[in-house]
Amino acid sequence: MHTNRKTIGRRAALTAACAALALTAACTAGSTDSTGVSSAGKPTVRVALGVDASYAPFYLAEERGLFEKAGVNVELVQTEGGPAAAQAVSAGTAQISANADSTALPLMVTNPDLRALGVFQSSDSYLKVVLRKGVTSPKKIRTMASIGGLGLYATHEYLRHNGIDPKSVKILQSSPPEMPGMLERGSIDGYILFDPWVSKGVAGGGHIAGRIGDFGVGYAQWLLTDQKWLKDNEAVAGKVFKAVAEADRLVTEDPAAAAKASEKQAKLPVAQTRQVLPEITFATRGIDDSDVTSSQKIVDFLLAQKLIKKSPDLDTVLLKGWYGQHVG
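Given the sequence above, the corresponding structure tokens read:
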């Protein structure tokens, strides 16, 4: 496989996390603020997350005051998505992050203190394959761009599903905002992403060639935290998760309100958000055996690609039973 990988050191990760927090708080190395309280006497928790429709429950929870009602002051820290959110937790500049399973697992190797508390949404439809104009068959693909984690895993599965050896395709690691332009310029033949980058690719002349479920791929989004913070703040983490659970229910019942909240909190187009929300299952649950099985499959892929040197201890980093005890 011809893959260009960007290496991000600890200092770079902390710098990125600090930049993301510039509008909410001063950033200092190792700072957690987990024992801080708001003016109303509630514990303050920073939650790092990406910027797309899949995070609608957080935007709606903020708009409806659900975190405050649950007894916690939450600051939403928007990042570029992918590993950046969990890296903020590792750096101590956020206490909780929202990350896909395949993105979190390799980070759990480099930071074995990361813990998955439970699932807040899942989908096999939200991510789509976008091919450039003129690429009418997967057999014509020579170069693709990919984000790490889920994106790379899905790219390999898509190629294999269509009888293509991934080693025969040049796979460039890139960020979502770059890919539609690369597609329009002809620098790549396709990518697998979520909106708004799917719509932007189509607007630039590309076309949707399928969804990840078409070739057997799905994902679960976890709430992650660090064990060092969690051991003294399990009740606080449970309050955050309860508010997200309530927001999940509201997103499902009233997607129009969720879309409006997403526009206000993250500048996401209302019509576009309304269109994709039905593609996502917004429901919280605890980590179960199916998560362990799917995680092992992802870990095996990462090991085969030499993207990680060892497996995280799944029995330790996936907190089976935690959700039932602290969220209900």
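Residues 151 and 192 are 6 Å apart (CA to CA). Try to locate this feature in the token string yourself.
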